[in-house]
Amino acid sequence: MEMIEMSNFDGQIRIERMQMRIVPIKMGVPRPGDVACVYCDPSLAAEKLGWKCQYGLEEMCADLWNWQTKNPNGFN
C-alpha cells in the first residue's frame, strides 16, 4: 500500500474547490493535548478484518460537505 502524506490544508483545498469559494480559517496555537501529527495505516484493518478503503480524499471531503450542508447543527 502506498503511503501518501496529506495535511488539513489538503482537505480544506478540496472543500474550497467543491464550494467554489475560499473557506476562512483561523490559525492559533495548539491546544493542550493536541498532537503534532497523526499517521494512518489501514493495513492492519485489511489484514485482520478484511476491510479496505473505498474512497479517496476527494470523495471523503465531498461526503463530509454533503452531510454538513444537510445537517448544519450536527447531531442536535
Entry summary:
The protein is mainly alpha-helical.
Tell me what you see in this structure.
The chain is mainly alpha-helical and 76 residues long. The chain has a domain at 8-22 and 34-70. The chain has three helices and no strands. It has helices spanning 8-19, 43-49, 57-70. The longest helix is centred in the last third of the chain and has 14 residues, at 57-70.
Helix segment tally: 3
Structural class: mainly alpha
Q: Describe the main β-sheet briefly.
A: none
- Principal-axis shape equals extended
Tally of DSSP β-strands: 0
Radius of gyration: 15 Å
Helix content: 40-55%
User: Helix and strand string, N-terminal first?
Assistant: HHH
Strand content: under 5%
- Detail the poorly predicted runs: none
**What is the residue-averaged pLDDT?**
85
N-end to C-end Cα span: 38 Å
Key phrases:
single chain, 76 residues, mainly alpha, 3 helices, NAD
List the helices and strands and how they pair.
Elements: H1 8-19, H2 43-49, H3 57-70
Cofactor: NAD(+)
Domain NAD(P)-binding: 14-63
Protein name: UDP-glucose 4-epimerase
